[in-house]
# Entry
Amino acid sequence: MRDERASPPRVRIAVIGSSRVGKSALIVRYLTRRYIGEYHSNTDLLYRQTVPINGTPVELEVIDVSGSNADKFPSEQIQWADACLLVYSVTDRSSFDYATEILNTLKRTPMHGSPAHGPAGAQSGMPLALLGNKTDLDHLRQVPTKEGQAVSVAYGATFSEASVADNSGDLYRCVDRLLAEVRTPQRTRKFSVTKMLGSLIGGATNNNQTTRGSVVACPRVPAPSRPPLAAAAP
# Structure
């Protein structure tokens, strides 16, 4: 039987954004250094890979939260995660508005349940990052950089802009910084998506080293009954 104590600690990241902002391409680029282009999925996807964080091997699990149901607040996925990465396209104002609504809801209703979220009763201690993708399409820009910076400051998130297509270094720095902000990687989880799923195993490359990773189709976690985000804003 596998010794759980010998297993590397786990860090869980939820990547949230509207459809077609490049979330899936961003995750695959970070984990494999490959570009897959954009594709649309109507279900959440879970990626798993061992990566080094501050020189320590960590089992990284990333949920790519489907943007096909963007009128639902992804509370289950956020409760599962240790940190959240909000992604929007600098060419799509509505995707920026959606990311802002998620940050606003998190500020008004802090999520708890994981040691990485901070002590109970505190304002949300979950590390947050806001990333504007598609800077290679700057001629189509609808969201100024200063506006993204202002929103990130208002909601306590780090801010970056990047081009997944161009493999910009800001993408890697953004995710690395978010991972480093997670207070204590955990060996146990309060809610396990992988526990009830089979895995599709494939090779992946990270930091020029071959590792084994997996991606599994994850059925959408039922979200609490609530009005659309636009209606929830005060």
Notes: Helices lie at 23-32, 75-80, 93-108, 145-154, 169-181, 229-232.
